[in-house]
């Protein structure tokens, strides 16, 4: 059997007290928090070409408290519970519904993109309207899916991959820090809700608000189930190289967009479900490591960055500014993926060493 990974690579036990030997100066403990705070809004709004380069900084400053605050709170909740990626994904889905259904309410506002260069997507969205609730299932898939993959999961994967194994699955903040981040998130969300550029003076119907609230609460309840905190034995099954995992996700992404209407939604949902099942199956292997997690988590950012050259920013911009933004996206994406991949290189003393993170987290059987 392959050698057992270092126990420090496994998700921390619920409410585990930090080892005094692992305590770091405050400035070092805050580095990953600040990185996630800044990376989440960039990945959510800039990584796919939504803004020209001169808008990057204003977007990160304006949306950092909301997007970054949500990513930090979700990550800290999961790591404090020792629950791992199932909880992160479910809480990210809850955030996506909360954001699109209750905060900016873009999910229910048919004219949300009318003042942007994406006004022509309205007809395609209306081809998959859910009767009685007045929202497009295609848009729901895109909005919530992008929040799961780009706003929450990818930034967490990047930041954790840059950390050492002992810090990767441990909480970064204490209760005071969590309280500060919670206030930042609430203030950021309130800013978007009250801003004409955020909610755009639209208010969803009571039925729509109740529906979105119920979905959020249901997702949170499922995310916090004790089953996600149970350790399960890993299987001695083979998994492909991490690069093949990422390539599979990139290729699958290409087939989730082209077909319009209800057939397109059905294809996208079926592909997503199948891909998720495959990743869950692979991650139960003792050979699944942090490089696989990085490949799976960064694949959609890579896809978004590649297509940034083909899509216009929300607001009209000069060709030079738009191109500079797309090039900057490519540079940042390559730096993140390449830097994280290099950071996860095997230790010279143990070429077989890995960093394990399963869906759900599982204990590796001993030889």
The average pLDDT is 86
Number of strands: 2
From the alpha carbons, calculate the radius of gyration and give it in angstroms.
20 Å
Quote the beta fraction: under 5%
Question: Pairing-aware structural class of the strands and helices?
Answer: mainly alpha
The largest beta-sheet arranges its strands as 1-2
Low-confidence parts: 1-21, 350-367
Number of helices: 12
Largest sheet: 2 strands, antiparallel
Account of the 3D structure:
By secondary structure, the protein is mainly alpha-helical. Helix content is 59%, strand content 1%. The chain has twelve helices and two strands; from the N terminus they run ααααββαααααααα. It has helices at 26-46, 56-81, 85-103, 122-126, 137-162, 165-168, 175-194, 206-223, 242-254, 261-283, 290-307, 319-343; strands at 129-130, 135-136. It has a two-stranded antiparallel sheet with strand order 1-2. β1 and β2 (135-136) form a beta hairpin. Residues 1-21 and 350-367 have low confidence and may be disordered.
What tags apply to this protein structure?
single chain, 367 residues, mainly alpha
Topology of helices and strands:
Layout: H1 26-46, H2 56-81, H3 85-103, H4 122-126, E1 129-130, E2 135-136, H5 137-162, H6 165-168, H7 175-194, H8 206-223, H9 242-254, H10 261-283, H11 290-307, H12 319-343
Antiparallel strand pairs: 1-2
Helix pairs in contact: 1-2, 1-5, 2-3, 2-5, 2-7, 3-5, 3-8, 5-11, 5-12, 9-11, 11-12
